[in-house]
Amino acid sequence: MTDFIQVLTTIDTRDGAADMAKRLLDKRIAGCVQVSGPVTSFYRWQDKIETAEEWYCVVKTSSELYPDVEREIRNLHPYEEPEILAFQVAEGSVTYLDWLAGTLKKE
Fold first, then answer.
1. List of residues 6+ apart from 13 with CB closer than 8 A
2. Mean pLDDT of 84-90
3. Number of H helices and number of E strands within the chain?
4. Across residues 18-28, what is the average pLDDT?
5. 2 φ, ψ to 5°?
């Protein structure tokens, strides 16, 4: 098990995804953000089934920086309740994880 995580969120526009990625990188709370899409999401909101075109953002960071990442996503996000899910990185290339660690802010 490592101290690294991937945080998944979706957002309504490509520009919004790019802005979020740049902000997380500028603050050094992410080492990499991958943006893909569009994807079509189907979900229940306020007791109705909704459909939306969204963009995935996968944020590479450390467990220690998760609260900062969540706070920044919430600050930037247009949704009332954005999807924010974190997944522990079980294993990874030592050289990639060393690179990732070097990109993140030091506490």
1. 55
2. 97
3. 3, 4
4. 98
5. -110, 175
Per-residue pLDDT reduced to its tens digit, 60-82: 999 999 999 999 999 999 999 99
The angle at the Cα of 7, spanning 25 to 101, to the nearest 5 degrees, equals 50
Domains of the chain as residue ranges with CATH:
4-103 (3.30.70.120)
End-to-end CA distance of the chain: 21
CA distance 18 to 16: 5
> Side chain identity at 26, as an amino acid letter?
D
Model confidence at 107, pLDDT cuts 50, 70, 90, reads low
Residue with tokens 């500028």: 26
